[in-house]
Amino acid sequence: MSIERELRDHGVLVVTISDPARRNPVGHAVRQELLAALSEAEADQAVRAVVLTGAEGQFSAGGDIRDQQSRSIAQHRDRMAVIRDLVLRMVRYSKPLVAAVEGWAAGGGFSLALACPTVVASRQARFVAGFTRIGLIPDMGLLATLPARIGPARARRVMLTNQVIEAPEALDMGMVDLLADPGQALEMAVSTAAEEAAAAPLPRHFITDWFARDIAQALDYEQSLQPGLLNSEDAAEGRAAFRDKRQPNFQGC
Fold first, then answer.
1. Could you tell me the CA-to-CA distances from 223 to 10, 73, 76, 77 in Å, in that order?
2. Where does 18-128 show beta strands of DSSP type E?
3. Quick one: which of 112, 103, 104, 106 has its CA closest to 33?
4. Could you identify which of 43, 59, 133, 202 might form a hypothetical disulfide with 105, taking C-beta atoms 3.0 to 4.6 angstroms apart as the criterion?
């Protein structure tokens, strides 16, 4: 199992992506585990809020490259359906859901953090989209969640240029909500989640749901395009370049 759970005081459940040797990648199996963990927590009356984090000083390095092999379009679409279910549950979660980001939140890890309605980051955290480096479009809802936070023009540039966003700049941009001292993002996130859980739950849920209204359209768009891109020659070149630690030579096919 790559997911660890710990119930803290005040009913705050900490869900940790735990594969630190590989900087906590978010492959298909991890996404399935996260979906199950969040579903169970939502139904558990002892859980009043959830904090999502990564093990040993990293949030997540993103999608698991080893998992991104060529498959049939139907298989890719089926796997994308898990992403759709996970992200829609996160952005419309009926309980407070807070990301605690230390270190890198890259690619799918970046998307996963922004799918949480509240993001707490260490002052040393760093964010990068990174999808186009491996011949893919941003997924896990980033096409909607990032512009919702920082505006469409700036979001487009962040996604196309893959610029690394340091935590203080991320706060100024509105990408994250709170900054913590290094090593303290989890504790601040737990405290923030407990405070949010003390508020009236129904208004909080309806407000969150309103701001999530455009995300389903982005997820549908991802599901229609990403399966073909995953099988493209450019994606294969992007994966090879990533493994070989070199610049990719894309051909547009």
1. 38, 10, 8, 6
2. 49-54, 97-101, 104-106, 118-122, 126-128
3. 112
4. 59
* End-to-end Cα spacing for the chain: 36
- Spell out the domains of the chain, with CATH numbers in brackets: 3-184 (3.90.226.10)
Rounded-to-integer distance, Cα 122 and Cα 147, Å: 22
Q: How far is CA 37 from the centre of its chain?
A: 15
Give the helix/strand (H/E) hosting 90: helix 73-91
Q: Cα–Cα distance between 139 and 63 in angstroms, integer?
A: 10
Torsion of CA 235, 236, 237, 242, to 10 degrees: 90
Name the DSSP class of 11: G
Helices vs. strands in the chain: H and E counts, helices first: 10, 9
Q: What is the pLDDT of residues 179-224, one digit of tens each?
A: 999 999 999 999 999 999 999 999 998 999 999 988 999 999 999 9
Residues paired with 51 in a beta bridge: 14, 98
